[in-house]
Structures are given as C-alpha cells and as structure tokens.
Amino acid sequence: LGGGQLGRYALMAAATMGYRTVVVDPDPSAPAGTVASEHLVTPYDDPTSLRRLVSDCDVVTVEFENPPAAALDELSVGTVVAPSPDAVRIAQDRILEKRFLVENGFPVGPYAELVSGAGSPAVEMRPDPVFEGSAVVKATRLGYDGKGQRRVDGVAEVHAAHADLGGVPCVVEQLLDLQTELSVLVARTVDARAETWVVAENRHVDGVLDLSVVPADVAPQLTDRASGLGMAIADALGFVGVLAIELFVVDGELLVNELAPRPHNSGHWTLDASVTSQFEQQIRAVCGLGLGDTAMTAPAIAMVNLLGDRWSAGEPDWDVVLDEPHAKLHLYGKHEARPGRKMGHLTVVSDVTSAAAATALHLRDRLTP
After folding, report:
1. Which pLDDT tens digit goes with each residue over 118-138?
2. Whole-model pTM?
C-alpha cells in the first residue's frame, strides 16, 4: 500500500529478488507504480483492490504510515500483513505513539495531549512536568515534513494553534534545546531476528530532512544506546519490517521523537554505502527471509534532499552531480515539482563525514537550470 519513492525503491529490490508486486495508490503517476508488476489506481481501502491483494499476495506491506488501519485489519484476515495493523495504528497517531512509548518506559520529551473539552480545548500533560516556554502543536494524524504543525510561545497560544489546525486532536511538545538529531533503522523478522545500521545524524530545515551524515558525529556510547533503544522499541511493538526511530539528543541523553513503520528518508544512504539497503532488507524481513549484512561499504557518507524548489527556473543541470565520481544522483520520477516536495536526493562518499557533507552541499548549491 502506497506508491511513493520509498515504495519505488522497495519494489525495485523485490524485482531484483524475483518477486512480482502489486501497488495500490490512487495517483496514476505514483513513482512505485512504474516499477511494480501491476498498479491498482484506487483508494487504499477500495474493497475490490483489497480482495485482489488477499487472493494474489503472499504478503502485504506499507511504504507510508497513513494507510487506513481498518484496511490493514481486513487484509490481515486473509493474508500476511507486515508490519502488523496494530504497529501501523500506533505509529500513525501521535497520541497513541506517545502513550505506547511512555507505557513501555521509553524516554520522551515533555508533552501534552490536546483534546476538546466541554466547550473549550483542554490540555492534559503526559507525563506531568511544568510546561514552560515555546512549544510545537502537532496534529496527531497525517502530519509529516513539517505539515500539520504550529510553533507557539507559551500555553496562551496553544488554543489558537489548535483552532488553526482545525480543532483536530493534537499533541503539544515542549521545544527542547537540541544538541543534535539522530535516527536509527531496525530491521526485524517475525521470529525476532533483528539488525540495525550505523546511526545517522540529521539536520532539518522547516521540518523537512535536509542533510544526513553517517556515521553520526557523536560519542560511540550514544550511538550504542540509540541502537539498543531502537531494538527495544521494535521488540515492544512486535514489529516486522524496517522501523525508523527519530531521536533527539538533549543534555547528552536520548529522547524518542517519533516512529516511522517503514523505510525512512534518513536511510537513503544505505542504497550507496551499505552491503544491504534498507529497501532490500524490508523485502527480506516481511517475506521471512534471512536478513542481510548492514555493514558500511565506505568510511562515511552524506545525503542531501532535492526539493521541488530547485526546479523553479527549470530542470537542474545534473551534470554537476554526475561529473563528481564520489557522488550518486537519485531522482524519483515525479512529474510535478512543487516547493517542498521531495523530488530526489544525492549522496557523496568520503573518508570523513565532514568532507562528505561539504561536497554534497556544494554540489546541491551548484545545481542550476
């Protein structure tokens, strides 16, 4: 379910391994549709398409966190669904996700649940610190890449932000003094075999991932704790597939920001600098195969996103990237370039992350029509 670029790469890996594949996505130009054996251009919960998946597919998986959970429940009655509907249901709802993390003892930052009270919104703190200073109000569902979020300064502005977001259920997260942001990818099979990749360090701009470098430039004990935390979360979820965990580093400690129940933008580097990419591993995990080696094939790598803004004056001159022997260009086959839309990415390998990042950013800056 889902036909974006994450599905595109996963289905390319599946085709290499000899699988036939079906994509369900209502967009006739969905990137994954061009590499699938068949593309069903219907809503994700279309009854005919769901019956078709049950009859034809040995396993159904997802490439984004927002397919209708009820559709996954229906599919799971007749075929294997991985990750499970319950795991996806938790990861697609910020309130359920926060509650899951807190109830299982995983560290999160101060936050509140914003729900409609009798005549006016009411804020309930979970856990129960004193809520101070700036915060971010986030819609519990369908928010990604900075969408569905509002920055507020103090509790007085929370209700206005809630109304601006349509009065939908929200979480209010206290703005933290971040040292950096990390992400860890965990691949796990139904019989609890699991592997992680080297931890990535990430930079976001306007809520959208801008730069990832691997290995993360933090103390080894911190990346060890991040990997252990990721494995523990995957076990608690009973997760099957590739799970991404975004982490904040605050005062030298790790806090879980959010979960993504599928391959992740910050794991694109695995296509060019890992023995096994996150996409091949996704296919291996959900199909019950042995997991591949996750070792790096280069000392360091950096990835930068290419957003639709770069197309504002026409198609960029890709020779800038293609003439660099240590760079790889990835374009997703999307027909319409819109500001903020992820159209592709580029990676650069080097001996150290600082050099890889500098080259990747320089190449992107030179992209002009």
Report:
1. 444 455 544 444 466 788 888
2. 0.93
Which residue would you say has higher pLDDT here, 190 or 165? 190
CA distances from 239 to 42, 87, 273 (A): 27, 7, 25
Torsion sign, CA atoms 42, 2, 305, 344:
negative
Q: How far apart are CA 236 and CA 106, in angstroms?
A: 10
Cis before 215 (ω within 30): yes
Let me know: does 65 contact 140? Beta carbons within 8 Å. Answer: no
Q: How far is it, in rounded angstroms, from Cα 67 to Cα 203?
A: 27
78-90 per-position pLDDT tens digit: 999 999 999 999 9
Amino acid at 96: L
CA distance 231 to 214: 19
pLDDT digits (tens, 9 = 90+) for 294-304: 999 999 999 99
Burial string for 280-292 (b: 16+ CB within 10 Å, else e) reads bbbbbbbbeeebb
Q: Record the tokens describing residue 172, joined without a space.
A: 């209010």
∠72-16-227 over CA atoms, to 5°?
60
**Nearest residue to 52 via CA among 85, 21, 17, 83:** 21
Give the separation between CA 134 and CA 359, rounded to whole angstroms.
Answer: 35
3-state class (DSSP) for residue 216: coil
Query: CA–CA separation, 198 vs 273, rounded Å?
Result: 11
Find how far residue 178's CA is from the centre of its chain. Answer: 20
In the three-class reduction of DSSP (H, G, I as helix; E, B as strand; rest coil), residue 206 is classed as: coil
65-244-56 Cα angle (round to 5)? 50
* Segments in 112-259 forming alpha helices (H): 158-164, 220-237
Tell me the β-bridge partners of 249: 180, 254
Q: Kindly give, in sequence order, each residue whose CB lies less than 8 Å from that of residue 234, ignoring residues fewer than 6 positions away.
A: 186, 188, 194, 243
Calpha distance 188→212 (Å, rounded): 23
CA distance 305 to 5: 13
